[in-house]
Write a structure and sequence with these properties.
By secondary structure, this protein is α+β, with helices and mostly antiparallel strands. It has one domain. It is 34% helix and 30% strand. The chain is built from 4 helices and 7 strands. The protein has helices at 20-40, 56-61, 76-80, 113-128, and strands spanning 2-11, 45-54, 68-71, 74-75, 83-88, 97-103, 106-108. A 4-stranded mixed β-sheet has the order 2-1-3-4. A 3-stranded antiparallel β-sheet has the order 5-6-7. α1 crosses α4 (113-128). The longest helix has 21 residues, at 20-40. The protein is elongated, with a radius of gyration of 17 Å.
């Protein structure tokens, strides 16, 4: 079985909390991985979720690295022809400008499940490689 790694990184403060946008993305990531598991199992692809915590000190130095997602080693935005951005956040993030994602003209603070599933399916199709060529008349 081939593995489709989905890595999600977010700020976690000393109390174990994060901000609402990261919390929302966390729910979406878990639901998307469940949907991808069901869809990709017959194709021999297993999605595997890895979650990485950022300490507050690391977040202060690089706030746009929080709420970041990679699928098969590539940033989420690369799979979706999206553009990362930033907007002011709250709670655990303080006044920091936190990561957003623009896809198809819409800007997302919390990443929705459907975008994650779409990106996962695109990435999985690349894992499967090109279709076998036709071997001759009557084969296809």
């Amino acid at each position: 079985m081939k593995t489709l790694t989905i890595l999600w990184q977010r700020l976690v403060d000393a109390s174990g909390s994060t901000c609402p946008r990261c919390e929302g993305t966390g729910h979406s990531v878990e639901q998307a991985v469940a949907r991808l598991k069901a869809a990709l199992a017959p194709l021999g692809v297993e999605p595997r979720l890895e979650m990485r915590e950022m300490a507050p000190e690391a977040f202060k130095a690089r706030p746009l690295e929080s709420n970041r997602i990679w699928i098969a080693g590539e940033p989420l935005e690369a799979w979706l022809d999206g553009t990362p951005g930033a907007s002011r956040c709250c709670d655990a993030c303080g006044d920091a400008e936190c990561r957003t994602l623009e896809v198809d003209g819409a800007i997302y603070e919390a990443i929705p499940e459907d975008l994650l599933v779409r990106a996962g399916l695109i990435a999985a199709s690349r894992l499967l490689g090109p279709a076998a060529p036709c071997c001759g008349p009557g084969c296809c």
